[in-house]
Amino acid sequence: MAALGASAPQGLRGVAAGPRQERAGAGGLALLGAAPGAPSCPHGPALLFAKMNQGEEEGRRFYACSACRDRKDCNFFQWEDEKVSETRLAAREEYNRNHQPAFTHRQNVERYENFLLLPLSKRKFCQECQQLLLPDEWEKHYGHQVLCDISTAQLKSPSQLLYPLENKKTNAQYLFADRSCQFLLDLIIALGFRRVLSVGTPRLHEMIQSKASQEEDFSVRSLLLDIDFRYSQFYTEDEFCHYNMFNHYFFGGEAAHETCRQFFHQDKGERVIMVTDPPFGGLVEALAFSFKKLMAMWRQTKKEGHNNQEMPMFWIFPYFFESRILEFFPSFSMMDYQVDYDNHALYKHGKTGRRQSPVRIFTNITPSMIVLPVEEGYRFCTICQRYVSSGNQHCEICNSCTSKDGRRWKHCALCNKCVKPSWFHCNNCNCCALQEHACERTEAGCFVCGKAGHKRSTCPSLSVTKTACQTDKKKRQKTPKKVKMGICKRSAMKHAIFSRKRMKNKKKKCSLPY
């Protein structure tokens, strides 16, 4: 097969950008976002980037995969001005076809219906292929690790049946713990929402679907948008859409678009909320671009006069992305609730100090309406008019509960803000930082000569320093070599003396009478 793309610049794997250009430093990369007529890879339309060289105002543009930041996962690359031959286009189309799922969503729905008709003894699931098996397919999976006697309860909990995908940058599936999942659902119901657009939150969707099938008076409905097509084996077209949240791409085409639009229609006054839990390795501007597109779809279903409204939303992300999220959604605020996950070693609730989960809920809903569980140590701050964690003490100078990570922060008079308890004010940097940190003032100069105005790579003293370093290196290498040779000689001499003594003793023994 012909090569599918030229070599991509190092340091980037495709991540979606917003409609604006992201600033890039000298020799960096700029994100230009989605472009009309962009070429496609198995993950949908590629996104446009620019490689910025030092001293250039405009870099050369290229397309890269929207979802994968590692070339091992998807190696798609194409310069924007590159002329692609018919042979390469045909090879690319064939490659994209070969990397699509074996069954369509409709076929998976039909297979699921047939699977339900099977007796328990004939319900099998291939763990290696992550596929429900019908009897005529058993032979093809001979030798694979297969689960038998798949119950209806297991089919209603596919997130526990499927292996979680754990690529942090593309499709990481760190699944909500029951505590967090139940809290989110209870909060959604308490706020009066009856329709949940679950973007990358399969476990929340699963809980809603399960309760809807078991409880007659349960009125909440959910639509799952996820890049993991394996879920199409368990949900109908009205319950699941194959979706890439990095480029707002519906793999099911216009039919899937229409499914999402129909879900936004508020029947009998039902309110819609979007809950999303993206991979933490994805860039915020990429996600914000897609989420704004979904909000635009929601606004189209509203009556006139509501065009400026935002769809209610819970964006679940680490607290240290707060400034980036607020840059795109200024109306959002961060809640203190710690979201924890079943299959993540660090993001667990109940840990103390820096080991606490850093994942929070960002929302455009009024903070005072978000009631956090008092039994877990959350309390209501009457001044801030929101629930905060027990360690988040109100600062009278900042006039806010300033802690982000659950610990009690301290106020720095010089910085005029609260900082982490482990930080100290650095007079060189003129700001607070960890006690053992590299000062910005020191880093402002050249690393080689210490002078300002140039970097290490262009330092005029670099060649002199490099020669001196090489000379020192040779000296260092010679010394251990001599020592090593001396040790070897001494060892050889000792061995020879020992051998001669052995031979003499052997001769003496041979001359002795028996």
Automatic annotation (TrEMBL):
SMART domains: ZnF_C2HC (SM00343). The gene is ZCCHC4. This is rRNA N(6)-adenosine-methyltransferase ZCCHC4. Keywords: Cytoplasm, Metal-binding, Methyltransferase, Nucleus, S-adenosyl-L-methionine, Transferase, Zinc, Zinc-finger. It is found in: Cytoplasm; Nucleus, Nucleolus. Belongs to the ZCCHC4 family. Residues 41-83 form the GRF-type domain. Residues 446-461 form the CCHC-type domain. Pfam families: N6-adenineMlase, Zn_ribbon_GRF. It comes from the Eukaryota. PANTHER family: RRNA N6-ADENOSINE-METHYLTRANSFERASE ZCCHC4 (PTHR13493:SF3), ZINC FINGER CCHC DOMAIN-CONTAINING (PTHR13493). Its main location: cytoplasm. InterPro entries: DNA_methylase_N6_adenine_CS, Mlase_EEF1AKMT1/ZCCHC4, ZCCHC4, Znf_CCHC, Znf_GRF. rRNA N6-methyltransferase that specifically methylates the adenine in position 4220 of 28S rRNA. N6-methylation of adenine(4220) in 28S rRNA is required for translation. It comes from Apteryx mantelli (North Island brown kiwi).
